[in-house]
Amino acid sequence: MLQGLLFIVLTGILWSIVGIVFGYIARKRFDFIAVMGISTPFNALMTWLFVADHQQLFNDGVSRTPELILVMVLSGIISVIAFIIMQQAMRIGHHGIIWTISQSAMVIPYLFGVLVFGESVPLLKGLGMLVILSSFVLLGIGKNSARLVHGAEAGTSWFILALVAFLLLGIHQSLTTLPTYWHNWQDSARLRIPLIYSGLALGYLTLMFLGRRIANRRELWLALILSAVGIPSNLMLYRGMDLLRQVNMVSISYPLALGITIASFVLYNLCIVREPTSKISLIGLVATVSGLVLISV
Q: What is the CA radius of gyration of the chain?
C-alpha cells in the first residue's frame, strides 16, 4: 500500500512540474504550440516503443481496436484544444486559480459515469463534487481582487477561458474512461497511453505545420522537460493504481494526485512567483483540495 501511495504522490509532484512549465511558457510568451509540437510526438514515439505490448498486439490482437483508436485519439485532440485555451488564460489571468479549475475536471468523468452508466455516488463523493463546483464561485468572486504578476488587471475573460478548459478536459477524461465500461474488455496491449499521445501529437503537429512554427533553443529545452516529466508521471499513476487496487484503495488515486499537484502548484506561485492571491481565492483553493479529499474517502 505504501509503495502505491508513494507512486501517486510522485505523480502529483510531476504533474505540478507540468503546471509550472505551462505557467513559465505563458509568462515568458514562448510558443506553446511549438513546445508541445516537439514534446508530444516524442512522447508518442517513446510510449509506442516502450509502453505498448507489441507481442500482445500482433500475436493475439486486441478487441474493439477501431473503437479504441477513435476514442483515445479523439480524447487527445480535445485535450490539445483544452490546453491551448488554458495557456491563453494563463497569459492574462491568475495561474493558481486557472490550474486549480482545470485540474478539477475529474468531477466530469464522475458525473459521466453516473448519468450515462447509472453508477451510484456515495454520499461523501457526491459532497466532494459539490464542494469542488462550489469552490469555483469563491474563485470567481476573488478573481478581481489583485493585480496580476504580469501587470494586467484581472478581468473576466481568463476566468471564462479557465471554465471552458475545465469542461473540455472533463470531456477528454470522460473519453479516456469510456473503454473501461466496455463489456469484457481489457487494455491487454497497453495501448491507451500511446494512443492518447498520438492524438496529442496529431493535433499539435497539425497546428505547428499550419502556423509554420519552429521551436527555438529554449522552447526545445522546455519540450524536453515536459517529455521527461510526462511519460514517468503516467507510468507512476498506473503503477500506483495497480498496487492500490490490491488493497481496494484505487479510488483515491486521482483525487490524491490532483490534490498534491494543485497544492504544490499554488504554493510555488505564492512563494516563488509571488502571485497576488486574495483571501477569498485562497479559501476557494483550499475548498477545492478539500473536495478532492472527500472524493477520495
A: 19
CA distance 130 to 288: 10
Q: How many residues does the chain have?
A: 297
Distance (Å, rounded) from C-alpha 177 to C-alpha 180?
Answer: 6
Please state whether the predicted TM-score (pTM) of the whole model is above 0.85: yes
Query: Given CA atoms 14, 18, 23, 25 in this order, what sign does their dihedral have?
Result: positive
**pLDDT, tens digit, for every residue of 79-131?**
999 999 999 999 988 899 999 999 998 888 878 777 877 777 778 878 888 88
- Residue pair 170/75 in contact (Cβ under 8 Å)? The answer is no
Answer for the pair 226, 21: CB distance below 8 angstroms, yes or no.
yes
CA distance 176 to 118: 18
- Whole-Å CA distances, 120 to 109, 131, 255, 274: 13, 18, 18, 42
Q: Which residues contact 229 (CB under 8 A, 6 or more apart)?
A: 14, 17, 18, 21
Contacts of 151 (CB under 8 A, 6+ apart): none
**DSSP tag of 272:** I
CB count within 10 Å of CB 212 equals: 6
